[in-house]
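note to self — DONT lose this again. spent like an hour looking for the file last time. sequence + predicted structure for the chain T wanted, 381 res
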Amino acid sequence: MNIYQSIQDLSSALAVFSQVLSSTRKDRLEGLCGFDGFVDSFIRMNRPSSMAEFGPKVAEAAGIAASYSVTHEGDRFGGNGPLFVSALHDLFDGRIDLRYAGGVGVSEMEPLFAEALEPRLTAVYPMAQPAHTDCLEFTDGKIMLNDFGPCGDITLARLLEVAGEPEFQKIVDAADFFVAVNWGKLPNVGEIWADIAMRRDAGLSSGSRVPFFMDLAEFEHRSRKDVEELLVLLPRITEAFSSFLSFNLKEAWQMGEVLGGHFTGKKQPEDVAALAGFLKQNISVDRIVIHPNSGAACASHDDVVYVPGPYCEKPLISTGAGDNFGAGCLAGHLAGLDDTGMLLAANAASGYYVRTGRSARFEDLLDLVDRWHRGQLPERL
């Protein structure tokens, strides 16, 4: 187990990190991503501004009423998949072919999604109307109020209807990676994951285990039976792919409890790394990734590593930070970084996003890490 407590502890890894991310790829990767879609309405909480203050005030007002000052900051495209694929495009500075399937419209993309994603996508397969989230943004976190209505319309039958059976097989065969996020809010998406694994396993020779990156997102409302069925599905995905399963810390605690571990409330780097190792021992995937606000851990067949993050005390935006982390994680792996470098890229991608409200390019990651290493990383970039 390797626990890096500070960016200075990573000094020996920075040269390789810089060399890999500065290299120009000769091949052009292509991938399939999905499968959700949300319209996010951003609401900045003014007073109280923190979740720590807000919680007790709400409890005190139970049975009466309460009123709080907010600033409505407008609507934007959202959902884990759309934010992830947008960030992945930006990291590669457009030198990547991305296909997206999900809840971004029925016959065509809704305007919010079209404006943001059309320039970034090679192809899109609109499967359902987007769901809706009110994002309450605090200085120390966020509360997501979700209307999941259309999420049940994301099904395998609908995907094959939109993409076409022969074309979908070609897409699966050709992909260099897959991104499958927000299992927690898509009740029927498991059948899509299983179908992709079946098609890939049957259609290609051994040795073609490309990355399959999964982020369950908040799955508190999914039943114990749903989670147990997922755990049965994951070995099938791992047989066909190099599988990544990513959690934020709360989600990792939840999964740990399901598997009989007792890590809830433990936030120290050593505890997060131990939790990653525990989940890796009990879940049939190649890599477990956990990303609390202050760093990230990865457990693989080789080792468990924890890498600190460039913590931002007052983020400009927090909704989407986890998706930018995931995109940085996959992009770092695709670029050729080891697990330590991959986590550094992911943490830097998230750190750049919360400071700017924009997704990073590789050169932005290098600049952020350099400033961080020199002790000159500001709260805003």
